[in-house]
Design goal:
Elements (H helix, E strand, L loop, with lengths): L7 H13 L8 H17 L1 H14 L15 H4 L2 H12 L15 H11 L22 E7 L6 E7 L11 H23 L3 E11 L2 E10 L4 H18 L3 H20 L1 H12 L8 H7 L2 H11 L5 E7 L3 H6 L1
Parallel strand pairs: 1-5
Antiparallel strand pairs: 2-4, 2-5, 3-4
Length: 329
């Protein structure tokens, strides 16, 4: 919600009232259904979404609810009724927990706190166990899928690792995961792009998806290079797990993460997105910068061993493929 900072309390109150209200605009329901059906079809037809849906299905299980944005059933739009929306809304608002308010711009904290307690506080407390569960415990070995897309100019190779269980809340979890992402990106980019000249881009990410943490490595390369890139990725991951990150990789990762945090002071929306991502891993540290400096290199190495496995992962290769690519894979 957007509004003048002088009216922040009123904005929060209005958000709360709209959030709990079960009276939706039924007159727009037909247009919403049309939009939903069109969006679902477009989503299903996108090769990258097909690849993501397949990978996540392998690590989460085919019935996991978080597959729906990537692989929605086409009949969903026509089968959902107005009464279904009201029903699921009632269930969702009855289980509000661990909410985080992030404000971009000025905010009267005392008025905002009073408004939050008077609005969202009335929903009551819903006890939710903190923690991230494991993914598909039965997934063993390396499993891949090649999606031939001749219209693409390059090949997108993505590795997805089986999520691991984390039981205890930890305010530095999000920061540690972010540092792992930066260190791993630097490690793989140095080898694949700077030394080998094989990739256009190399990117690592970790996302909190509900109660599951998904860790992925994504690279783009020329057609015909993907099998070699996959082999190098596997070897580099094994070395990273065995030896950990070097002092240089660790120092650069911390500097890059600090740079993104500091950039949030001048780019409010970038700062908001960073805090939202940290919140998705449990809690936002009271002093994120101090937390970043308090994390040791060995903590990130431990996180790498927890989330990465060079012998057990799934991958997709999407783009123009040659027959010899399949044989090499």
């Amino acid at each position: 919600a957007d509004g003048p900072w002088e009216s922040s309390a009123q904005v929060i109150q209005t958000m709360g009232q709209r959030f709990k209200s079960r009276e939706f605009n039924n007159g727009r329901w037909s247009s919403v259904l049309y939009w939903a059906e069109t969006t679902l079809k477009e989503t299903r037809d996108q090769q990258e979404n097909m690849a993501t849906a397949w990978r996540w299905e392998q690590v989460l299980g085919e019935d996991h609810p978080y597959l729906s944005p990537w692989a929605p059933a086409l009949e969903t739009g026509s089968s959902v009724q107005y009464k279904d929306l009201k029903k699921i809304h009632g269930k969702a608002t009855g289980k509000v927990s661990n909410a985080t308010l992030i404000s971009v711009g000025k905010l009267n904290c005392q008025e905002a706190e009073a408004a939050l307690k008077g609005t969202f506080g009335r929903f009551g407390e819903h006890k939710k166990r903190f923690g991230f569960i494991r993914g598909n415990k039965d997934l063993k070995g390396i499993k891949g899928k090649v999606i031939h897309a001749p219209e693409k100019g390059d090949v997108t190779l993505v590795l997805t690792f089986v999520p691991q269980e984390i039981k205890k809340p930890n305010v530095s979890l999000g920061s540690t995961v972010f540092l792992l992402k930066e260190a791993l990106t630097q490690n793989l980019r140095s080898r694949l792009r700077e030394k080998e000249g094989l990739t256009y881009s190399t990117y690592c990410k970790a996302s909190a998806v509900g109660n599951v943490i998904i860790c992925e490595v994504k690279v783009t390369c020329q057609p015909g290079q993907a099998p070699r890139v996959l082999a190098i990725l596997k070897n580099e991951l094994a070395l990273c797990i065995q030896n950990g990150f070097t002092e240089d990789e660790w120092a650069l990762a911390r500097l890059k993460f600090l740079g993104k945090y500091i950039a949030g002071f001048s780019d409010a929306w970038a700062g908001r997105n960073l805090l939202l991502n940290l919140a998705s891993f449990g809690e936002i540290p009271a002093d994120p910068m101090a937390t970043i400096f308090s994390i040791e290199r060995e903590q990130v190495n431990t996180m790498a061993r927890l989330f990465l496995d060079a012998e057990n992962f799934v991958f997709t290769a999407t783009g123009p493929m040659f027959e010899e690519d399949i044989d090499q894979f």
